[in-house]
Amino acid sequence: MSTSVDAEQAWHALQRIRVPQERVYDEFERTSSGGPRATYTTAAIMWAFLASLGLDLPPWGVGLVLAAYVALLGGLAVLNFRRSRMQLHHSHSNWRLGVTFVAAAVVTGGTIVGVGRLVDSLEPMVASLAQATVSAVVFVLFVRPASRWAIGSVRRNAEGAGR
Fold it and tell me: Is 139 helix (H, G, I), strand (E, B) or coil?
């Protein structure tokens, strides 16, 4: 029991499937990182936190600032998660997504520690402002291209699996 399929019909059927799939990956790339607004907001929150550490706060004040920092980042994560209209199944995730997250943490943390040691001899408020500014700039410069690299690989993996 075989039916003959015209090559042109098969091509059109494949395109009907492929076009929506391309749109899915376009949307995933667009919404996965939260866009520039989320990146700049995260950098601003990090800058404010690091700059406030230069103030001579008592231990409870540092704890309060740390709690506010974690709450703001958590709120931003929840807000972006709710805005995103889609999620990929875990089988579509690949090693690049995890590597990007870890690399961003290492680069940002290394910058914070490295700049902190370089400006250690300065006055605490000036040192914390320099540390906060350099760390926020490095975060912004690293996160956007790294996210594009990781998310772009999800599309390439899906295209390679579909062939």
Answer: helix
Residues 115 and 139: their CA atoms lie apart, in Å, by 13
Contact in structure between 45 and 72 (CB atoms under 8 Å): yes
Residue-wise burial string across 89-128, b where 16 or more C-beta atoms lie within 10 A, e elsewhere: eeebeeebbeebeebbeebbeebbeebbeebeeeeeeebb
Q: How far apart are the C-alpha atoms of 120 and 42, rounded to whole Å? A: 25
End-to-end alpha carbon distance in the chain:
26
pLDDT at 83: 63
Provide mean pLDDT across the span 109-127: 89
Query: What HEC string does 140-151 produce?
Result: HHHHHHHHHHHH
Q: What is the pLDDT of residue 163?
A: 45
CA dihedral 124→125→126→127, nearest 10 degrees, is 40
Angle CA 101–132–149, to nearest 5: 25
Where is pLDDT greater, at 46 or 17?
Answer: 46
**Could you tell me how far CA 48 lies from the centroid of its own chain?**
19
